[in-house]
Give the backbone structure.
Amino acid sequence: MQASIQVSQAPAVQYLLRIGDTALILAQRLAEWSGHAPVLEEDIALSNMALDLVGQARAVLTHAGQLEGSGYDEDQLAFLRDERDYRNVTLVELPRGDFAVTVLRNAMVATFFKLLWTQLATSSDAELAGIAGKAVKEARYHQQHAADWLVRLADGTDESRRRVEKAVMQLWHYNTELFADDAVDEHAHATGLGPRWGDLKEAWTAEMTELFAAGGLTVPAEVAFLATGKRGTHSEHMGFLLAEMQHLQRAFPGGVW
Amino acid sequence: MNRAERAWEVLGTVLDPEVPALSVCDLGIVRDVIDHGDELEVVLTPTYSGCPATELIEQNVLEAIAAEGLGPARATLRRAPAWTTDWISAEGKRKLNDYGIAPPGPVPPEGGVPIRIIGRRQDAIACPRCASLHTERLSAFGSTACKAMYRCLSCREPFEHFKPI
């Protein structure tokens, strides 16, 4: 069994891990749809989006490893950290649910990533800016695709409408975690590494409100809600996800294709 | 012809593994060939963040240079500026069409493009087989990250479209 690694708590490293881990864990959830999506085209679409997210995660984790300085590569960071050292937001680790849950989550996350990558394209960190310049195009395409589906489901049959409304009830409040700033955000903002995520809230809310309006959906009123995945305290679903994702590297250290 | 120029010629014969109608030069991903004296450096820009062909392309590029006897070489990645389908050469776009893949049109301006939810219109994509503009999109995603699925309503053929990005 391969032992776990611990990584630096330096704020710049943590900021990158939040981005890379959020992309990676959403990719893992989307990949669960391979062979199971309601229609073949969506099976392909979800796998394609997962692939884009894995690519983004690889680039960001590789860079995080370089900044961290202990010589960890993308694979070690992805497969050898324990649950508490993962920095993804809780929203992406929740079970994939039905297709409505997946579509809504993709719309929420892709909208966030589009806004984040747009800001990161002018990061003081040239490597991160380069990654962002490519990723923003992909996020925009993901957002458009999720938006199309969200409106189609919301404006579709009674059943699809019921499922979307249920998904909104399940997922919406997790958005508060995205925008709850802390010292990691302040450091990124002060050094020009990237925006405080909280500064993206207004634009995110405006785009999501427009999207909900197009589908005749109501944006839930804001309530006090605490999720802490990006600080390392995850939901009960995270351990199971990591067990599946990390199993091969833990059982066969250094195994390659 | 110097060594870098010879390398460019060789690279013009290295095909993209997923779209073997195009060379890596047609695709616009070879950004530079630098002769450092002791070795050649081939600078590549990846097409998509998750493109699984990126590593295979690097390997194929280095093998082609080695086979030509141009000496030691290494491939490096340059992420910025990000690759865009606008870098596919005119010749490359013609080859794509001949191969049965509708080539990408110009990439829309970056930034500030709002998501379009209602009344979204797209430029008609011409069928690569019969050139009809009477076509429809079947799926936003296709067999690889760079393509979408279409169908021609005139000749009834399904075809792929290289997405402008």
Summary: Residues 40-68 of chain A form the longest helix (29 residues). Chain A touches chain B through 36 residues (CB under 8 Å). Residues 11-251 of chain A form a domain with the Ferritin fold (CATH 1.20.1260.10). The mean pLDDT of chain A is 96.
